[in-house]
Structures are given as C-alpha cells and as structure tokens.
C-alpha cells in the first residue's frame, strides 16, 4: 500500500450491522461489524417455540425422575448385590444404579439448559467497549438494565412450564448429595457416650494382660489399662480400645487437689481416659513431679492432680475420670462407665 493512499482511494468494504467502521489511512483494517442477524424458527413461529419449551421441560422432568431413582436405588438395592452388565462384567448393582441415575439427572439439567439457551433465549450478538474496572453509576445502571432485559429475553417469566420444571430439577438434585452423606457409615446413635467399662469390670494391664492390683502401681508411675474382656481377636477391637483406653497413675492422696477426683481414686490411684480431648490422640507423656500429662500431637497439657483439667494447649475440656475401687480379691475394678463421652467434643455433647 502506497504512503500517499487517502481515504478517498481506499477500496470499498462491505458495511454490516453491529457497529461497522469505515477504513481510513490511519486505520486501514476496519471492523466489518456483525453479519446480519438471522432469526431462528422459534423466533418467528410460536408453535416451534412451544415445542422447544416442551422439550426443555421434558429434560428437566427426566432429571427429577432420575434423582428420585437415585434415592430409591440407595434405599432399595442391597449394598452387596452383584449383577452382570455387558460389557462391564460383574459389578455392584448399587454403584451402577447410583452412577446411572445421578449421571442422567445432571446431564438432563445441562441438556435442558443448553436447549433452552439455543432455541428460546435471545441470540442477538452484542458488542461493548472495554471500560475501567471501577464501574461508574451510569455503568451500574446500564448493567442492571441489561440484566432486566436479559431476564425478559430468557422468557423465564413467560415460559412457566420451563421455569417450574427447572426449579423442580434444581431443587431435587441436591438430595442426591444428602443421601450420599448417609453412606459415610452407620449412625453413631449413643455409642460415643458409652464404653466397655461397667461396674465390676477389672482393670487389665495392657502390657502384661493381667488384672491390676494396687501394689502393681507405684507412686510416680504411669500404667496403661484396658477393660476386662477386650480381646485383640474381636472385630471391633480398635474401636473399643479407642474409647476405653486408660491411664493409671498413683499420686500421694494429699497431693490430689480436686475432691471429686480424690473420692473416685483408690489410695491415690487415679484412672483417666487416655484419649486427648482435642482430636483424639493417645496421651503417653507423664511428668511425675508436676503430675502433668502431655499430648504429643498438639501439646495439650492436663493436670492429673486437679481432675485432669486443661492447663495448656487446644484441648477443650478435662480428661474423663473412671471411678475405681478394689474388689474382694484385691484387684482394681471399675464402679461404672465414664460420666461423660471420651475424646474430642462433638456438637451433640451438650
């Protein structure tokens, strides 16, 4: 292109609607604008528009039915049922049903939204110049006006069948997640509030597997104990141990500050839960001069001479104490279960 080319001798360029520009010497590559808008069949034929509306509503209805199917599958199909499905082979019937119904539910919502946008919402191209990040009052007013225009062009107010079925699909599909939460495991019911300890159950030394006598616990020592009858062969051994594990310490009775703690002891022998009340780590570090125990996970510190109250760290409450005594044969025994749940706090604890 020669340098002396002027606007008059530039070749003509087609001018389209949508903000077309005329080429100049300073800007030889003009914006041709948008091509002329071609209306869709639904824009000019209400019968076709109603057909699209029914299609979208059908897809949203399929989503609702699939969500209900997901819930029904979760409730009805046994977890151990195996079926043969070609070409997958033998698979879990529950997993297959949950996956298919949830997939259909989500796909139908997406397909309905896409079909709605492509056939009924406005498809007129709009161009807008870039502007500063901080919007002026005029721009904000313009955005709100465009939002109102977009709402009208979506026809959500006019197409009530689409609106109602869409709201139904979007309302039901979250129920799939709610039912999935039920699969995290059986409800705890009151299991968190009870352990294996009960009246008359012996304290068994965890190292020797023999019942403890008072003379087995020396002043300043730390001994770990489990309830009588807890065997490693049990299927729930770890679960029961995590709730019932004990720390046994012996302190001079005059050094026990808390009256209830002293009354629940036997000749200065105290039994406290071994489970930290912060996140449930096992406590194992004992300082006999101060009668403090330290959780190795997050350094929560408890004073065993003062009802195992928290003196440092993130733990929220004291370690539960087990009321103990000695039976007729001279063995240490429990006089009941813990009065409060062991381990970390939970919202039903009260």
UniProtKB/TrEMBL annotation:
Residue ranges constituting the Rieske domain according to the UniProt record: 269-333
Family: Belongs to the Rieske iron-sulfur protein family.
Region ranges (Disordered): 1-47
A GO CC term attached to the entry: plasma membrane
Principal cellular location given in the protein's record: membrane
Record keywords, A-Z: 2Fe-2S, Cell membrane, Disulfide bond, Electron transport, Iron, Iron-sulfur, Membrane, Metal-binding, Oxidoreductase, Respiratory chain, Transmembrane, Transmembrane helix, Transport
Bilayer topology: Multi-pass membrane protein
Subunit record text: The cytochrome bc1 complex is composed of a cytochrome b (QcrB), the Rieske iron-sulfur protein (QcrA) and a diheme cytochrome c (QcrC) subunit.
Cell compartments where the protein resides: Cell membrane
Transmembrane segments: 56-79, 91-114
One MF annotation (Gene Ontology) recorded for this entry: metal ion binding
Protein name: Cytochrome bc1 complex Rieske iron-sulfur subunit
């Amino acid at each position: 292109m020669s340098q002396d080319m002027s606007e008059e001798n530039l070749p003509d360029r087609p001018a389209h609607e949508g903000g077309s520009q005329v080429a100049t010497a300073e800007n030889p590559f003009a914006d041709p604008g948008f091509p002329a808008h071609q209306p869709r069949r639904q824009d000019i034929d209400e019968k076709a528009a109603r057909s699209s509306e029914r299609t979208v509503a059908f897809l949203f209805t399929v989503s609702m039915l699939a969500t209900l199917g997901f819930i029904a599958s979760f409730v009805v199909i046994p977890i151990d049922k195996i079926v043969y499905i070609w070409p997958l082979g033998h698979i879990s019937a529950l997993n297959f049903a949950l996956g298919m119904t949830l997939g259909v539910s989500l796909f139908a919502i997406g397909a309905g939204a896409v079909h709605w946008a492509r056939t009924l919402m406005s498809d007129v191209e709009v161009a807008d110049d870039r502007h500063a990040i901080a919007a002026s009052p005029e721009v904000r007013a313009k955005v709100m006006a465009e939002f109102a225009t977009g709402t009208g062009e979506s026809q959500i107010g006019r197409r009530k069948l689409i609106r109602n079925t869409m709201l139904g699909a979007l309302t039901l599909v979250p129920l799939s997640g709610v039912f999935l939460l039920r699969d995290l495991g059986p409800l705890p019911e009151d299991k968190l509030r009870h352990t294996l300890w009960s009246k008359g159950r012996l304290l068994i030394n965890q190292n020797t597997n023999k019942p403890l006598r008072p003379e087995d616990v020396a002043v300043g020592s730390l001994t770990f104990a489990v309830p009588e009858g807890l065997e490693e062969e049990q299927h729930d051994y770890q679960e029961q141990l995590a709730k019932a594990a004990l720390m046994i310490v012996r302190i001079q009775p005059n050094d026990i500050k808390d009256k209830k703690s002293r009354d629940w002891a036997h000749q200065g022998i105290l039994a406290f839960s071994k489970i930290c009340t912060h996140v449930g780590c096992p406590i194992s570090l004992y300082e006999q001069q101060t009668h403090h125990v330290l959780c190795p996970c997050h350094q929560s510190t408890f004073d065993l001479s003062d009802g195992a109250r928290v003196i440092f760290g993130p733990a929220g409450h004291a370690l539960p104490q087990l009321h103990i005594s000695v039976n007729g044969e001279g063995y240490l025994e429990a006089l009941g279960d813990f009065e409060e749940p062991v381990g970390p706090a939970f919202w039903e604890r009260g």
